[in-house]
Amino acid sequence: MLLLLGGPSLVQFVTAAIVFNFAWTLIQPYLLSTLSRVGSGGQVMNTVNLMIGGGFALGPFIAGVFIDSSGFGGILIFSAVCLIASFAFIAAATSGRRQVL
């Protein structure tokens, strides 16, 4: 996110996209395994896949609305709030469920 501050140039945007895609590839299996341990049965994983698909479908629209109304600063603030909220939800979901491998 920090790469996009101040209105990104082409190099900044491409670098941020590459970093995001690399990080998503590494983090997604951890997130999915953590969520699969939270619930029993396949309902949690069905919901998770629905939310991931919904995010991919609605994310560009929501980002476009924020960028159109308040520029890149608004979407970066919204993204930071969502990131902090997701860290809080992950911490809450994994507290008390620590496993040593």
Characterise this structure:
The protein has 101 residues and is mostly helical. It has two helices and no strands. The chain has helices spanning 10-38, 43-94. Helix 1 crosses helix 2. It starts with 9 loop residues before the first helix and ends in a 7-residue tail after the last helix. The mean pLDDT is 80.
Core attributes:
single chain; 101 residues; mainly alpha; 2 helices
Mean pLDDT: 80
Largest sheet: none
As an assembly, this protein is: single chain
Helix content: over 70%
Q: What distance separates the N and C termini?
A: 32 Å
Helix/strand structural class: mainly alpha
**Content of β-strand:** under 5%
Overall geometry comes to elongated
How is this fold's topology laid out?
Elements (H helix, E strand, L loop, with lengths): L9 H29 L4 H52 L7
Helix pairs in contact: 1-2
Kindly summarize this structure in a few lines:
The protein has 101 residues and is an all-alpha fold. 80% of the residues lie in helices and 0% in strands.
